[in-house]
Amino acid sequence: MAPRMAPAQLDELDAETAALVEGAGGLNIFATLARHPKALKRWLVFGSHVLAKSTLPARERELLILRVGWRCGSEYEFGQHTVIGQSVGITAEEVRRLASEHLDGWSDDDAMWIRAADELVADHVIGDETWAQLAERLSDEQVIDLLFTVGQYAMVSMALKTLGVEREAGVPGWPT
């Protein structure tokens, strides 16, 4: 499917927006969202917190993001975070298992993170049982960062799918 909104070319953008896109790696997501420069600038601040400055451990953050990408049907998000997730210790087998309904084979802690993502995407609230586990294991800041992570990547998945943002060459899609 062709993009519904083509990524902006750097020469179409003002210098500040072009620098933001280049600084973010020039990925299609950023070049597409650059069609709304003010929103891109503000979104990058929040996205940077969620991805690089939150209180969540990197591996668990990526479990959440991969599960949200799969639950929301965003192959772009799932592919990008397959690469990031594997760089922080998620195995190829775990990536494959994140794209299935079952929680078999996950540790209790991993299953808790995945279940939290599932519940938030499905019902927009964490159920009592999962909440009790999270509250026992995580700080208040970590719980809030978990909520923001799932919300951020559900929103991004929605934008990616609606705008038809295409994966970059070499970025994996759904696991086989």
Account of the 3D structure:
This protein has 176 residues and is mainly alpha-helical. It folds into 2 domains: 10-52; 56-163, AhpD-like (Up-down Bundle). It has helices at residues 15-23, 28-33, 37-53, 58-71, 75-87, 92-98, 108-123, 128-137, 140-163. The chain is globular.
CATH class (first level) name of the largest domain: Mainly Alpha
Instruction: Classify the fold: give the CATH topology of the largest domain.
Output: AhpD-like
CATH architecture designation of the largest domain: Up-down Bundle
Biggest pleated sheet: none
Apparent shape:
globular
* Order of helix and strand elements from N to C terminus: HHHHHHHHH
Estimate the mean pLDDT confidence. 97
CATH superfamily of the largest domain: AhpD-like
List keywords for this structure.
AhpD-like; mainly alpha; globular; 2 domains; 9 helices; 176 residues
Question: Mind sketching the topology for me?
Answer:
Elements: H1 15-23, H2 28-33, H3 37-53, H4 58-71, H5 75-87, H6 92-98, H7 108-123, H8 128-137, H9 140-163
